[in-house]
Specification:
The complex is a heterodimer of chains A (about 300) and B (about 280). Chain A has about 300 residues and is mainly alpha-helical. Chain A has 2 domains: about 45 residues; about 230 residues, Orthogonal Bundle (MetI-like fold). Chain A has 14 helices and 2 strands, in the order H-H-E-E-H-H-H-H-H-H-H-H-H-H-H-H. Chain A has a two-stranded antiparallel sheet. In chain A, strand 1 and strand 2 form a beta hairpin. In chain A, helix 4 packs across helix 8. The N and C termini of chain A lie far apart (about 50 Å). With about 280 residues, chain B is an all-alpha fold. Chain B has one domain: MetI-like (MetI-like fold), CATH 1.10.3720. Chain B is about 75% helix and about 0% strand. Chain B has 12 helices and no strands. In chain B, helix 3 crosses helix 12, helix 4 runs parallel beside helix 7 and helix 7 packs across helix 9. Chain B is globular, with a radius of gyration of 23 Å. The two termini of chain B are about 40 Å apart. The C terminus of chain B is likely disordered. The chains are: A mainly alpha (about 300), B mainly alpha (about 280). Chains A and B meet through helix 2, helix 4, helix 5, helix 6 and helix 7 of A and helix 2, helix 4, helix 5, helix 6 and helix 7 of B.
Chain lengths: ~300, ~280
């Protein structure tokens, strides 16, 4: 019955709509089967529980209660959120001047510059993270260089196996994803608006904060979200350079699905962290809109 | 004196140079340690050697991992480019109900943490009793590669002149014939660029492969297992160097095709950014 109704609606659509829907149906179906169904499964899973080797399929909030009440999980979730916010802040702040330089100072060969920026990121992610360990280590590149130059007397220890190392490594890993959206929105700014601001007596600082920055806001928001959301889910960086203080929720999710053999709890942890980072992103998104609206 | 004056005048350029140095810092080290004689990955360098590359050629586990990764990469590239072509074409050419929702849903894996995608697929496969294999990794990789393919190909379709298509249809060519003989040749550079980039992404992807691979490990999973053994590190550096050179070659090729397609369609190849938008 329902099948016929669907067909009826489909035939009522215009020819163009039908063609478009037909064409987009293979990728849509793929995404439904490989993404929507698995995500729905994870949500269901998070309400089940692990009974030694078997799954207990009675609906329960046990996993979520455990995730919130046991300090270890709460600490890890909050720390992941904290790290990803810090990483995002550092990455976007470092990326903005670079994007500004690309958009306003580089006159020719912009594409070449963009290409140069992206090259390092097409090498193995694992190796890049590992190499940061080599750079930041006790006998690492940075320490030996600074000691060789006589700037420091003994190796710095606060840069590896802690939060700082995670932030540095991730700020590096996400750099192009932060630069590109900001660059695109800077490119879209109508240059005559900047001239107008200058003619009307705005100094460079006022002009930047009242014209350039508000107009670049969509790019800043986009790069904030692009960096922040996946960062919460990283587990290679914390494991390689984070030490015990730098472990994040994903390391725990991985343990639950692996060694601890408690997939339902792992699923609940995954959902919980996604909901939290999702709501933070929403707040950032709305705040960005509001800032833009006020400036205009 | 002159230096400080230069710096204060060109602080943005100075910043950009430092930033690029930061971006390249880890990558520069890769070849340095790959050709370094010492087993310990630290300065000072001890001497030049190519023995770490010879070690690579003797490892059968590595060869198997490379073979798995190549199969996964090629199949992923082909499948995600086909799906990406459908989506990009529908997106650029047609209006249909729920367009925004559908398109954002297809692009969703771009912002979803990979661990979520990996865990979700793992849970589903576990429930269905599906054994983990190369194919499960391909399934996950196609999912995360389609958005990249859509992004690349939608810019290729945007430059397409609608009149050419209509002319072909008016002259009696069928819809499929028009696609094969008119549209496809015009978007071919975009297609190739999409194939190369999705292949590169799949080749380097670790988290999904780590969760969904069974006994057939991929190259990144192999590298991960080697990172634990200090004695293996120099040969891992050598492997990394080879991979770096290969990916850069593939990307230069991909970029070249993208620019050619943009030029062919009369767009400014320098605008519209690279393959990451």
């Amino acid at each position: 019955m329902i099948k016929w109704q669907v067909w009826g609606v489909f035939l009522l659509l215009s020819r163009e709509s039908r063609q478009g829907l037909t064409l987009i149906s293979p990728p849509l179906l793929y995404a439904l089967i490989m993404l929507a169904a698995p995500l729905a499964m994870v949500v269901t899973f998070s309400f089940w529980s692990q009974n030694y080797l078997d799954l207990d399929t009675t609906i329960t909030l046990k996993n979520y209660k455990e995730a919130w009440s046991k300090p270890i999980y709460r600490v890890l979730i909050l720390r992941s959120l904290n790290i990803s916010i810090m990483v995002t802040l550092v990455t976007v702040l470092l990326a903005f001047p670079m994007a500004y330089f690309l958009s306003f100072r580089v006159k020719r060969n912009k594409a070449l510059w963009l290409f140069l920026i992206t090259i390092p990121f097409w090498t193995s992610y694992l190796l890049r993270v590992f190499l940061w360990k080599v750079i930041l280590g006790y006998n690492g590149v940075l320490n030996s260089a600074l000691m060789g130059l006589g700037i420091i007397d003994e190796p710095m220890t606060f840069i590896l196996y802690n939060l700082n190392a995670v932030v540095i490594t991730l700020a590096h890993a996400w750099a192009p994803f932060a630069i590109l959206p900001i660059f695109v929105s800077l490119e879209r700014i109508d240059r005559s608006l900047l001239e107008a601001a200058e003619d009307l007596g705005d100094g460079p600082f006022r002009r930047f904060f009242r014209v350039t920055l508000p107009l670049a806001m969509p790019g800043v928001i986009a790069s904030t979200l692009i960096v922040m959301i996946p960062t919460v889910g990283d587990f290679i960086t914390p494991k390689l350079v984070g030490g015990t203080d730098g472990l994040m929720i994903s390391n725990m999710i991985q343990i639950q699905f692996g060694k601890a053999n408690n997939a339902p709890l792992g699923a609940a942890l995954a959902i919980a962290s996604m909901v939290i980072v999702g709501s933070v992103s929403l707040v950032i998104f709305i705040a960005g809109r509001w800032f833009r609206g006020r400036a205009q | 004196m002159r230096l400080t004056r230069f710096l204060s005048k060109n602080w943005l350029l100075t910043y950009a140079a430092l930033y690029v140095a930061f971006l390249y810092a880890p990558v520069i080290l890769l070849p340095l340690f790959a050709f370094n004689e010492s087993t310990i990955i630290a300065f000072p360098l001890t001497g030049f050697t190519t023995k770490w590359f010879t070690v690579l050629f003797e490892s059968t586990a590595l060869h198997q991992a490379v073979k798995n990764s190549l199969i996964i990469g090629v199949v992923t590239a082909v499948l995600s480019t086909i799906l990406g072509t459908c989506a990009a074409r529908a997106m650029v050419r047609f209006g249909f109900p729920f367009k925004r929702g559908i398109v954002s849903f297809i692009m969703l894996p771009l912002v979803l943490p990979e661990i979520i995608v990996a865990v979700a697929l793992l849970v589903l496969l576990m429930q269905l009793g599906f054994p983990l294999s190369i194919w499960t990794v391909i399934g996950g990789h196609v999912l995360i590669c389609v958005p990249f393919s859509v992004a690349i190909l939608s810019s290729a379709f945007q430059g397409l002149d609608k009149n050419l298509e209509e002319a072909s249809l008016d002259l009696g060519e069928t819809g499929w014939g028009t696609f094969r003989r008119v549209i496809f040749p015009l978007i071919l550079p975009g297609v190739i660029s999409s194939l190369l980039i999705t292949f590169t992404i799949s080749l380097d992807e670790f988290i999904i492969a780590f969760f969904l691979t069974g006994t057939d490990v991929t190259l990144p999973v192999y590298i991960w297992s080697q990172l634990r053994f200090p004695a293996k590190l120099p040969s891992v550096m050598a492997l990394g160097t080879i991979l770096l050179v290969l990916s850069v070659l593939l990307l230069v090729l991909g970029e070249w095709f993208r620019r050619r397609s943009a030029k062919q369609q009369g767009l400014d190849p320098a605008s519209g950014g690279g393959f990451m938008q």
